[in-house]
Amino acid sequence: MIPAIIEKDGRHALLVDGRPFLILGGQAHNSSGWPGMMPQLWLAVEKLHLNTLEVPLYWEQIEAQPGKFDFSLIDTLVNQAREHKVRLVLLWFATWKNGSNHYMPEWMKRDAEKYPNTTGKNGQPIDSPSPHVNATMGADIKAFTEVMRYLKKVDNRHTVIMVQVENETGSWGSVRDYSARAQKLFEGPVPSELLKPAVLKALNVPAVAAGSWQKVFGDRADEYFQAWSIASFVGQVAAAGKKEYPLPMYTNAALRDPLTNPMANTYESGGPTDNVIPIWKVAAPALDLVAPDIYLQGSERVLKVIDLYDRPDNTLFVPEAGLNHENAKYLFPVIAHGGIGFSPFGIDDNGRGSTAEETEKRLAPFAQEYEAVAPMMRELAQWSFEGKVKAVVEHEDHAEQTIDLGSWQVIISFGGMGRGNAAPQNAQSIGKTMIVKLEENKFVITGTLCHLTFKPTGNNSGKTWQYLKVEEGRYENGVFKSLRILNGDETDFGGPGFGTTPTVLQVSLITR
Ligand code: DGJ
Questions:
Q1: What is the 306 CA–ligand 1 centroid distance (Å)?
Q2: Cα-to-centroid distance, 350 and ligand 1 (Å)
Q3: How far apart, in whole angstroms, are the C-alpha atoms of residue 448 and residue 236?
Q4: How far is CA 408 from CA 385, 445, 450, 459, in A?
Q5: What is the mean pLDDT of residues 446-461?
Q6: What is the 103 CA–ligand 1 centroid distance (Å)?
Q7: What is the pLDDT of residue 419?
Q8: Is the pLDDT of residue 506 over 90?
């Protein structure tokens, strides 16, 4: 059964082998998808306990001569991924890689006239491909079509579960292309698909607007034109690939600050930043989703991003996040939002010759999360799809937080494994918890560096209560296997708690 993304009541799931699947991912460094680099990549895969490796496919390598395709890299990746029992997300590094044309084959780089870059406002050259060139788009479509055709042929086991089309599209250094070709389009009318009332409303533009880009979109016209142009291009590449083999497809975004509504000359313009998602949805319907790459910092900012990319019309997926301890905590809110996966960037040692111990240490913050949730990955994916999961992460002020579960409120305080208020404060804001509501009074809970206690609310308001049973254990083949019952000191002083390594608890409460 081919992988697919499904939607129900505004929530999404990625089906792999017909069942919801959660990507516990990791992405290779940009230049690590070469056969000679594979040993260090597989070492990182093993140490991270991931279930899905994200790895680039390089256009410059696959079509080094025009029209001659070399798919040996696909063979190597698919075969080795099977040996290591992991799935793949392949990243099509083609016309755009971080806004530039750097992965175009040499024969294209050498022919700047046929495959031109963007021209800046004052005629200056911009290190970014023009999205208005049919020859470029045609070449990309041709190569991507061949890739997907080949993949369909060799991957009947669906080792590859998703494909990223391009990488961080957009342009730095110019909000749009000002070449004569682009200028003519810019001065023409806004396409009718964008003038639909619902789209204009989503873009905060009066529903009656019509006319030129400048007239309809004012000071956002240049950026919106760029977003429309790039999204249309990428959408056509994705559609052509899907025609061969309809795997789920997405493209990723270099983010803008989600809190301050900055102008596009301060970030990569035209990619699927939060403000232009409605444009991407209209222009690129073949993409199943647009995805945020999380390199911004601060929990308010990151949680806002997670919120903005979880939309009824957009499945949440985080294909990249900085590989640091703070970011590991965001796996939980992504799952709680119904997200289909998470992946830190740059998991391998990038040819630096680290020892296995060093690799293990570098990956530890994510590895321990993956180890804890991997045994219940399928259950978690299903619970997430059904909206049964809630999560909080520790903010920089370390303040207590609450989760509302209907008849119960959970109060979460962050700190190490001390008793109640005596728990030492965390040095970094890396505490977190995730709670699955199995039944009205029964929960599966995991976390690190926090304590929880419960307060009866709603129907239970004012009632006395106690823990019926708190078990520590793990899921095995869909069943919770208890290691021990936590009681006495482990629940009496500030409620059950978590240390630096996540554990999984099954908690039942009772009112009296
Ligand atoms: C985001 C890009 O998508 C990645 O390919 C990589 O360049 C990282 N930034 C930074 O190293």
A1: 19
A2: 13
A3: 44
A4: 22, 14, 18, 9
A5: 96
A6: 13
A7: 62
A8: yes
Pair of tokens at residue 54: 């994200």
Name the nearest CA neighbour of 342 among 380, 310, 302, 294. Answer: 294
Region 234-256: what's the mean pLDDT?
98
Q: Is 64 left (phi over 0), alpha (psi -120 to 50) or beta?
A: alpha
CA 167 to ligand 1: nearest atom? 3
Per-residue pLDDT tens digits for 341-386: 999 999 999 999 999 999 999 999 999 999 999 999 999 999 999 9
pLDDT at position 417: 66
Instruction: Say whether 348 sits in a helix, a strand or coil.
Output: coil
Q: How far is the CA of 98 from the centre of ligand 1 (A)?
A: 7
Residue 424 has a pLDDT of 79
Which residue among 27, 167, 348 is best mutated to probe the pocket of ligand 1, counting the most ligand atoms within 8 A of its Cβ?
Answer: 167
Residue nearest to atom 2 of ligand 1 (CA): 98
Could you tell which of 91, 164, 168, 348 is best to mutate to test the pocket of ligand 1, judged by most ligand atoms within 8 Å of the CB? 168
More confident residue, 498 or 424: 498
How far is it, in rounded angstroms, from Cα 223 to Cα 238? 22
Cβ–Cβ under 8 Å, residues 146 and 237:
no
Per-residue pLDDT at 210: 83
Angle of CA points 25, 29, 31, to nearest 5°: 135
Q: Whose CA is nearest to atom 5 of ligand 1?
A: 30
Beta pairing class for 249-254 and 289-294: parallel
Q: Which residues line ligand 1 (CB under 6 A)?
A: 30, 98, 167-168, 293, 320, 345
Under the banding of pLDDT at 50, 70 and 90, the label for residue 43 is very high
Which atom of ligand 1 is least distant from the CA of 252?
3
| pLDDT for residue 207 | 82
* Chain segment 197-236, per-residue pLDDT in tens: 999 999 999 887 789 999 999 999 999 999 999 999 999 9
Q: Write the secondary structure of 398-458 as one string of H (helix), E (strand) and C (coil).
A: CCCEEEECCCEEEEEEECCCCCHHHCCCCCCCCCEEEEEEEECCEEEEEEECEEEEEEECH
CA of 293 to the centre of ligand 1 (A): 8
